[in-house]
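Quick board copy: two proteins, each given as sequence then tokens.
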Amino acid sequence: MTTDVMTRTTHSAGAGVGPAPKAMLWDLGGVLLDWNPRYLYRKLFGGDVAAMEDFLANVTTPAWHAEQDLGRSVMEACATLAAEHPAQAPLILAWGERSEEMIGGVIPGSVELVRELRALGVRQYALSNMEPENWEKRRRAYEFLSWFDGHFISGVERVAKPDRRYFELALSRFGLAPGDAFFIDDREVNVRAAEALGVPAVLFEGPEALRAELVGRGLPVAAA
């Protein structure tokens, strides 16, 4: 999952595409769920934004978090890191204990697209880098996660985006050829990895832009 909104690459909706995709592959964090650890850590750091950013960059680092996306226990990872940084132990332990406070809610326009495509009978799959424990919490908490025809969660599968094997295994699991699917993610590196395998993909730039993209690709969702 990603953190703050980044500068997006512009894609022309539907430019040079072929038949409408047979299946949709959805990232979750940053596309359907508004995940950002700053939602939690702004509370814990108060107004000290610089200290918060230093903590997220240099203590709970992206590399540390990536280990959890590959299946390492969140609480074990937090306990180990807290022992290495005892002065910041409460902040580190909060990463595991208060993980759901990192979610600002669903991204309504995106979830509505999932709903519309489901009503149209389009196959849809969730492809997410996520910790196993948090995946179990979220699939119970958010009804829309039950709408998918299948899920491929990095922490469960022990392989994560943008690893080529992640996409190969997901496509095999769901019986899809690369050209059958259309992948949506909010990280450029993941989009490029899918495209390198022959999976049409788009960088998520917001629900309205995505809706236009899907219309341009021949999917009969309502135009904005």
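And the next:
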Amino acid sequence: MNESKCPVPREQQPTNEFIELSKSRVFSWPKTKKSLILILAKFWVGSFVLFLLISSGSVYFKTSLLKYMLLSLFSSLSIPLLITIRLYLGWNHVFKRLTSERIEYEESGWYDGQVWIKPVVLKEKESLIASIEVKPILKNLIQIISIILILSLSGILLFQYNNF
């Protein structure tokens, strides 16, 4: 953006928000789907071990080792799900700011919010960034959230309708 014509503070400009989010250690995970899946799998294994420790104190599960293991496996999906949802919310916020015709910004605090309408050239540039860079990331995150939810739902149904 041309800083002389743009009243929006530099850190609140959508292009700069995108660059900062891309440089972020955590928010750069979804840039490639394979690396995100690998990272989420590591979190799933780590949370599985944690959930095994937590549920090992239950008297109810001492009778069925299979139930104990499956419950820990399916409940540990909550950690990768929360991480993925957080990543989605951050990238979706930037996507909305990039595709919006108006930019809401604050000059010095929450009490002095302003709105600036983007010029056509800037709007086209940011729409291009949103469609080429951010939209595939959002698509991957939605797919991963769907997979995690399907696995969680299958675990819930398994426990609801099977007596083992």
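Board note added afterward: Residues 81 and 145 are 6 Å apart (CA to CA).
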